[in-house]
Structures are given as structure tokens and as C-alpha cells.
Amino acid sequence: MPNVVKGSKQEKMIVVPYRPVRRLVYVVISLGIVIASVAGGFMFGYSETVSIQETVQLSRQELDENLATMQLENSELQRQVTILDRASVMDQRATEEVQSTIRDLRNKVAELEQDVVYYRQAIAEETEDTGLIISQFDIDALQAPNRYRYKLVLRQQDADGDTFLTGHVNINIVGSQGEEQIILAIRDISEEQDQLDIRLRFKYFQNIEGELTLPEDFVAERVQIAAVSVEPVDKSVNQNFSWVVEGN
User: Fold this and answer.
1) Tens digit of pLDDT for each residue in 123-166?
2) What residue intervals traverse the membrane (predicted)?
3) Domain locations along the chain
4) For 71-197, where are the E strands, in sequence order?
5) In which order are the strands placed within the sheet that holds 131-141?
6) CB–CB of 241/134 below 8 Å?
7) What CATH number was assigned to the domain covering residues 131-242?
8) C-alpha angle with apex 172: 167 to 178, nearest 5 degrees?
9) What is the pTM of this model?
């Protein structure tokens, strides 16, 4: 019987059978489980790595394709920019040519206008003392109130006896009625005239005459005569005559 110190706590002892084979089995199983876990983890990691590599490869292929597409688009854009630059240069040159042409045309028009003014002045100087002239205008009072007889004589200066002068003449009486100024066309106050433009056609002279009646309370001030010839030369003659009545 073993030595026991009196008064100390005694623990129970259990006797188990000694089985070294079973312990070895447990160790082998444990190692198998560890190895299986390590192998499973390795295979899982390997499969994940392969999947990631495949994904990366596909993404790289897509990036390569996108890069190629973008390079093509960039090349096309550069080509279009080059075309636009050339077109812009051509448009600029065309605009400069058009502006230059416009300037030349404006200068030419200015020169032609100066020539026209010169020729008009020359013709006016040549025709000033020739062609159509107003030779005479007379007004005579009649017995009836506000009734008058008029006579206008137009003449062709330097007439050669073979050439007809053609054109027209307008006659207006300018005056006032109360505080209002009024212009009366000879057509409206004379029975002998039925047109505003009285026709002219003569070799030496032509008389425009008749009787006119002024409205009541109308005060005549002057007579406006505007004559125009188209043959043998273009000429305009404008002249005002004071309202001077013969026989008053």
C-alpha cells in the first residue's frame, strides 16, 4: 500500500488499459483530416486564382479591343480634323477672293457712277439751251367770276424742221383756301384738259390753252409747270409763274 501523508487530499486514480494501436489510429486520422483540409484549401485557392487569371485575361482582351477601336476612332477624327482644316483654309481663301472681287466691283461701280455724273453734266450743258423750253404763259380774266383764260406756249429750241419733239407737260395752280394750302391740277378745273400728263408732239412749238374756273374763296398764288421731253433728247423743264392776271 502506498505511503500516504496523513491529513493530505487524496485523488482517485483510474486505471485504463494501454492500447497503443488505437492511439496511432487517432493520430493518423487527425493527420488525414489536416492534410485533407490543407489540400482542400490549396485546391480552392488554386481554382480561385485560375478564375481570377481568366477574368483578368478577358478584361485585358476587352481593353485591347477597346484600345484598338479607340485608336481607329482617333485616326478617323484626326483625318476629319485634317479635312476640316483644309476646308477652312479653302473657305478662307474663297472668302478673301470674294471680298477682293466685291472691292473691285465697288470700285468699278464708283468709277461708273462718276462717269455717269460727268456724262449727265455734259449732256445737261449741251441740252440746256436746246430742245424743249417754256416760251410763254399768260392768264386773262373773263367776265364770269373766278373764270380765266390761260395759254401756255412750249417751243423746240434749235428745231431743224424735220424732228418732232415728244413728251408731256403738267400744269398745277397753287394757292390757299382759308388756312389750307391747295394744289389744283389743270385737268380738274379746265374742260379742255382731261389728263394730268398733257401730250406734247410738235416740230417748232405747241400751244396749251383753254378756260379754267377756280373754286370760291380760293386765292391763287402761282402756277407750276413741269414739262418733259423724251425725243429728240431727254430733258426736264420745271418753272413757276406768279399768278398775274391780265385785264385786271
Assistant:
1) 554 445 678 999 999 999 998 889 999 999 999 888 777 889 99
2) 24-46
3) 20-128, 131-242
4) 131-141, 147-157, 165-177, 180-185
5) 131-141, 147-157, 205-213
6) no
7) 2.60.40.1400
8) 170
9) 0.49
